[in-house]
Amino acid sequence: MKHSIDLKCETSPEWxxxxxxxxxxxxxxxxxxxxxxxxxxxxxxxxxPDRKEIIPELIETAVEELEHFQLVFDVxxxxxxxxxxxxEKDPYVRQLLKLSHSSGxxxxxxxxxxxxxxxCRGTERFKLIAEALEEGELKDFYKMLxxxxxxxxxxxxxxxxxxxxxxxxYSRLEELMLEEAKIVENxxxxxxxx
Length: 194
Prior knowledge:
- The structure is a single chain.
- The chain is mostly helical.
- The protein has one domain: Ferritin, core subunit, four-helix bundle (Ferritin, Up-down Bundle), CATH 1.20.1260.
- The protein is built from seven helices and no strands.
- It has helices at 13-21, 23-47, 55-79, 91-97, 104-132, 137-161, 166-186.
C-alpha cells in the first residue's frame, strides 16, 4: 500500500544532463547520501528509543541504506573515483530541515515526513538516472536501486501514522511537498542527488 504522496514538481531534464556530464562527482554525493540515510534511521532509534513500534523498520531501513552505500562505494572503486574528496553540504536537505517544527511531537512527525520527502525525491532521480544510462551494469544498478528505494518514501509515512492521525500526517505532508517543490525549482544544478 502506498502511504506517501506524489511529488509536486518533476526534476528538470537539465539536472539529468548535469549529472551525466560529471557522473563521478554524482557517485561521490550518492554514496554520501546513502551513508547519511543509514545514520538518520539509526538516529531515530537513538533519539526515540521509546517508539518501539517503529524500531524494527528503522533497523531494516538503516541496514538497506548501508548496503546501498557499500554498492555505490564498490562502483566508485571500479571507476577509480577518489573517495577522499570533501563533499559539500546538501542545500536541499538543509532547506527541508528548516521547515521542521523546533520541538515536541510535531518535530518528531516532521522529521519522519521530511525523511519520506527526501526518499521520494531520491527515488524519482535514481529512476531518471537509470533511464539516462546506456545499457549495462550501471544502468541495471540504478534500475534496481530506484525500485528498492521507492518503499522508503512509504515506510516513513507509515511510521508517522503509528503515532498521528491520517489527517495530521497527510495535511502536513502536503504542506511539506509543496514547499519541497519550491526548493527544487530554485536549487542550483549540481552533479548531486539533490
